[in-house]
Amino acid sequence: MSATTAQGSAINQLIIRGSIVKPPRMKRSPAGVPHLLLALEHRSLQQEADLTRQCYVRIQVVVSGDWAESWSTKLSLGSEIEVSGFIQRHENANGIPRLVLHAQNIKQV
């Protein structure tokens, strides 16, 4: 399936490198699909408008499916990883939205 859908151009890809700042947590969906939840923190210096800018972000990462269980034994608090995948809007129980990165590839760095 291509990145183009009936809605037009649908590119949704994020690559970020950072460290895990909360202990990884495993859970299962009502359908029994395993999900590994990670809190990833990224800090760097970036160039914008010929100026150096401090960049900081913390984002939740979800690893789903069979490989979630495999990664749950390899990742821990403080692990440095590079994650690529797509972002999706999730709402918490109070209806507050946030962006979540759904991992399609993980690399330990």
From TrEMBL:
One of its GO terms (biological process) is DNA replication, synthesis of primer. GO terms for cellular component: primosome complex. It holds the Pfam family SSB_1. The keyword DNA-binding applies. SUPFAM superfamilies: Nucleic acid-binding proteins (SSF50249). Keywords: DNA replication, DNA-binding, Primosome. One of its GO terms (molecular function) is single-stranded DNA binding. It comes from the Bacteria. PROSITE patterns: SSB. Belongs to the PriB family. Homodimer. Interacts with PriA and DnaT. Component of the replication restart primosome. Primosome assembly occurs via a 'hand-off' mechanism. PriA binds to replication forks, subsequently PriB then DnaT bind; DnaT then displaces ssDNA to generate the helicase loading substrate. Involved in the restart of stalled replication forks, which reloads the replicative helicase on sites other than the origin of replication; the PriA-PriB pathway is the major replication restart pathway. During primosome assembly it facilitates complex formation between PriA and DnaT on DNA; stabilizes PriA on DNA. Stimulates the DNA unwinding activity of PriA helicase. HAMAP family: PriB. This is Replication restart protein PriB.
